[in-house]
């Protein structure tokens, strides 16, 4: 189904759900934004895959906020900053399950490997078969924030053959290290390091392979007022984000501002308002015209 919401950046193709899941798997709702001048006969398009797709174009999610991705793209197109892209917004089914790899003290967990398989082996092949895409990894961005940022990093590290560029904002790299208590997040324990985590055990072979590993952009914010999302969750994202940056540079030889960009935002919060503000830089870093 095609829906035209008046976005200057394009129109939406709606799949509710996109029925490509295998036996025993649930199918995700997927919204695909194609440019208004979409011309599959004459050109191919880079693709942005977004976790938390229910917040990509319209208010949604726990905070009922949006990335306003269509507005961001319209501005970038006006500046000729990037060539037109296709955006594939995937709605979570059970967010905490879909986006985490280990127990973290919250409800549900540990389904990100199954989600990665669905995304890499079912949803992306469907998009490449039915749209005029540039299917190679370096033209395919995996984008997410919070648990969705953790998931984006996981997907890019697990399947660099499909997703060659990754943006992980305010990422929950603390999952499995800094467990949620009944009222707050525990203070990071120095003996619980990312280097020794289950996440790095999975990612290390890919990150060490300079020919295959994804280019990365990481972001975190420094605002600590305005509730637990900033004072606790974003605080943990900051601690573990800095730790991840050091690991990527010191252990794996990532080069800042070349194959790794980090954004430490003094005004950054744990919400879509901040992530929307950074999305032009994300898109220009990976897909500058």
UniProtKB/TrEMBL annotation:
Top-level taxon in the UniProt lineage: Bacteria
Alphabetized UniProt keyword annotations: Hydrolase
Gene Ontology molecular function, alphabetical: hydrolase activity
Keyword Ribosomal protein: no
Oxidoreductase in keyword set: no
Record-linked InterPro entries: AB_hydrolase_fold (IPR029058), Esterase-like (IPR000801), Mycobacterial_A85_antigen (IPR050583)
Name of this protein: Alpha/beta hydrolase
Taxonomic lineage of the native organism: Bacteria, Pseudomonadati, Pseudomonadota, Alphaproteobacteria, Rhodospirillales
